[in-house]
Amino acid sequence: MIRFRIVPRSLFGRMLAIAALSTGIALLFAGVTIGHILERFVTRGLDERLDAQVAVLARAVRPDGSLDRMRAIDLPEFGEPESDWSWQVEGPAGRFDSGTTPPPSISKAALTIPPPPPGRPRNGERPLPLGLGGQQDQQIHPGEARDRRGERLHSRTMDVATPRGTVTITAIGPRRIVEEPLREAMIPLLGSLALLGAGLALATLVQLRFGLRPLRDLRTSLAAVRAGTERHVPDDQPGELQPLVAELNALIDQNAAGLAHARQHVANLAHGLKTPLAALSLKLAEANADADIRDMVDQIDRRVRHHLGRARADATGGARTRTSIAPAVADLVGVLRRIHADRPMTVDIAIPGNLAVAIDPQDLDEMIGNLLDNAWRHARGALSITANPIDGTVRLEIADDGQGLDDTAMAQAVLPGRRVDERGDGHGFGLSITHELAELNGGTVTLDRSTVLGGLLVRLTLPQRG
Is the C or the N end of the chain the one with fewer CB within 10 Å? Predict the structure, then answer.
């Protein structure tokens, strides 16, 4: 079952998600803010036209609350028939309008907002420059309504005090005067914000790629340390990674010290066995012991000497050498032809002459020798040996035309001392030793069935150098 993760697992994904979220919020805030500012700017122009008409009407109000028609001048667009621009004056003397009968849905309650207390103008209100009798303290405030067609209207209203009572002056204009320019301005604005968002997204990707490059370089450095081409991770790292690199190098040194200590123990053990084995070999020779027993003692002595030499080389800081595969295979095939002279074998070898691995020559001979010996014992009459470079490694494949192994037997074949075929004089350690040596050198051993010869196919993968 696939589980959806809200938080990505990778640092790149997390930083990209945070950047995308913050950029989206910033662009949304910018769009809303700029739209509000544009609306206020355009609305101010409409308010100024309405305020001018209100000011003209305020000067035409008589002390008795009536309207002096001679002084009630209609500014442009006001008073035109079927126009959305109109005005009305209501007071003790009755109701006066611009002559374009206001829609039925327009009423004083819908357009008029009660005046604020003296000295406390509402939001969007400002003192009218000239009021009745030269007063400067009259306030004008906005209002909203809809006509009978459902279109929005905008109004500006002022209450003028007269001896006979309050006179309410209202100037009305269409809201589309604000909405149409705002709509025309918002389309390019949103397009610009979209382009800005795309540019910011591209800049974020570039920034993340560049900012996370030290992590990719660190992974490459660690791979070099693991492959043995470098001893430590370079200290020249960004400040945030320097503590991590210091800990990694300390861990590498600690592991190297522990490995050196273990190798020293191996060297001591091998050195301790060397003398008793030499004495045992002399005793067997003096006693004319069976040749097979002396041969086994010689094999043990050679293994002890081999591991003693490796321990000494590692203790002095020796690095892995570059060992060519083709000569090693050719020499081992020649030796096995003499050992198994009673079993003639057709051997097909396809190995590039310049192909080499970062393995000690003795380790390589021991691994390939064990695999070839097993294949020679169980083949009917044909062997195939191939090697190819693959992604910094070398894959050596040895196939025979024998009976092969089933899946269960393949899993047991690499266990120490486990023999899956009781024929022959083997001891069951060849594949397990090869598997152990391959892992110690950073390689792998896998078993499969050969599709060409039909028998067992052994793949030995080893690290490549050069």
Answer: N
